[in-house]
UniProtKB/TrEMBL annotation:
GO terms for cellular component: membrane. The keyword Lipid metabolism does not apply. The chain crosses the membrane at residues 30-55, 67-88, 119-142, 154-174, 180-199, 271-293, 305-327, 334-351, 363-384, 404-423, 429-448. GO terms for molecular function: transmembrane transporter activity. Keywords: Membrane, Transmembrane, Transmembrane helix, Transport. Belongs to the major facilitator superfamily. Sugar transporter (TC 2.A.1.1) family. Residues 30-451 form the Major facilitator superfamily (MFS) profile domain. This is MFS transporter. PANTHER family: SYNAPTIC VESICLE GLYCOPROTEIN 2 (PTHR23511:SF34). It is a multi-pass membrane protein.
Length: 460
């Protein structure tokens, strides 16, 4: 199986051994475990879109107060993404991955038990902290176990579980909100955390991280088991030969740090990613957190606003599939710019349609086009980010990019709550469109292409 026994040989072949493996049911099983958590995270976060109107009515919240509540989970995500990224680069992906489940499950349960809006806001921060921990680690793990020629597609597909979870949250709210109210929704969403926590134990530690941490024999053991499982799953009698066996990952005497994100060629990448994440998430969450509530404000009943939001969100499924295909056919940079500009265009037109009280079919069609591009944007955003850093700082770099994005997420819903009374729905969606355009310009000017390259090649 081309497993080397010397420390130098192992160090020189870990990445090459992983990248030459055919994609079989074994890697897909590991991917499915990670993606399942992504799906339920999306349900928890997306639930607020469908139940914010009900919470706003029960507690008698003003638009500004409702916007602050919608933003509270993003403050937790800001903290979770930054802290978890650094911890994962220092202590490993797997242990931090497991801890995130505890914060997620407990936070969701406490949201359902909240008696007032202040307690609910605090619990949303706890829930957001767990979800924030999830993102940089999940991205890093998928990037590090999937072969280079499939990596972009699978990270994009991972993000595709976001619209699936979002739609599932809408379906759950539509059928269950009249029966168990918004508190029951949160309690129900805490249950999957237990199952995901158990199944995640089957996911091994990243061998690339083990190698970079100097734990050479452990890295070799994990890759050897990887090779055995791939052969078993694929019914293979031999594996492809290891090429470029002298390819060395990050030297074990070099440990990643936050400051490395701002040195050499990484500084431009970090600035680009931070600006991209900030403006993209400012626009996305500023709009989607309010979709249901804005429809209710326009005069639609609660159940109809939830149903229309589900219809609109369904377009995100073909959106992420198209994006997952395009990142490998065309490239990360071009796909990212296309999805951002498409999001801007249809966000603007949706705002005009909502303000003009057009026929419902036209409103839904415009909204579907908007969600097609916005969820496609998410796919390429997550595929692109972890590829721009070396293993020693991959989780830290991804975590801080996500964390800066959560500042945009935190600001977005609150800004909408303040802008809405003065500028109306057209002004709100024009603001979101401007955010997407700004993000697209940054990527056009500063982005680099990573399609088809190994992680080690990109990081050098």
């Amino acid at each position: 199986m081309n497993s080397t026994v010397s420390a130098g040989g192992i160090r020189g072949s870990i990445a090459a051994r992983l990248d030459r493996l055919p994609l079989t049911g074994y890697q897909k099983k590991l991917f499915a475990i990670i993606a399942t958590a992504w799906f339920f995270d999306s349900m928890d976060l997306g639930a607020m879109t469908f139940i914010l109107g009900s919470i706003k009515t029960e507690f008698g919240l003003t638009p500004a107060q409702a916007g602050l509540l919608a933003s509270s989970s993003f403050f937790g995500m800001f903290l979770g993404a930054a802290i978890a990224g650094m911890l994962a680069d220092k202590f490993g992906r797997k242990p931090v991955f497991q801890v995130s489940m505890i914060f997620w499950g407990v936070g969701s349960l406490l949201c359902g038990l909240s008696n007032d809006v202040d307690m609910l806001m605090i619990c949303r921060v706890i829930l957001g902290f767990g979800m924030g921990m999830e993102f940089p680690i999940g991205l890093s793990m998928v990037s590090e176990i999937v072969p280079a020629d499939k990596r972009g597609r699978y990270v994009a597909i991972l993000e595709g579980f976001w619209p699936l979870g979002f739609v599932a949250a809408g379906v759950l709210a539509y059928f269950c909100l009249p029966l168990i109210c918004w508190r029951g929704i949160f309690i129900a969403l805490s249950i999957p955390a237990v199952f995901v926590f158990v199944f995640r134990r089957a996911v091994p530690e990243s061998p690339r991280w083990l190698e970079g941490a100097g734990r050479i024999q452990e890295a070799d053991a994990v890759v050897t088991e990887f090779e055995r499982q791939v052969m078993k799953s694929g019914g293979l009698t031999a594996l492809p030969a290891v090429v470029n066996v002298n390819k060395v990952a990050d030297a074990v005497d070099r440990r990643g740090s936050f400051m490395e994100l701002w040195t050499g060629g990484y500084a431009k990448r970090t600035f680009m990613l931070w600006a991209l994440w900030f403006f993209a998430l400012l626009g996305y969450y500023g709009l989607t957190s309010w979709l249901g509530a804005l429809l209710q404000q326009a005069g639609y009943a609660v159940t109809k606003s939830v149903l229309y939001t589900v219809y609109i969100s369904l377009a995100g499924i073909p959106g992420f599939i198209f994006s997952a295909w395009l990142v490998e056919k065309w490239g990360r940079k071009g796909t990212c710019v296309l999805m951002l500009l498409g999001s801007a265009t249809f966000a603007y037109f949706y705002g005009q349609a909502a303000s003009a009280h057009v026929p419902e079919g036209q409103l839904i069609a415009t909204g579907m086009c908007m969600q097609f591009f916005m969820f496609g944007m998410w796919s390429v955003l997550y595929a692109y980010t972890p590829e721009l850093y070396p293993t020693r700082t991959r989780a830290t770099g991804s975590g801080f990019a996500s964390s800066i994005g959560r500042i945009g997420s935190l600001i977005g819903p609150s800004v909408v709550g303040m802008v809405l009374p003065a500028a109306g729905q057209s002004g709100v969606f024009t603001l979101g469109a401007a955010s997407f355009v700004t993000a697209a310009v940054v990527v056009m000017l500063l982005g680099v292409e990573t399609k088809g390259k190994s992680l080690e090649e990109v990081s050098k």
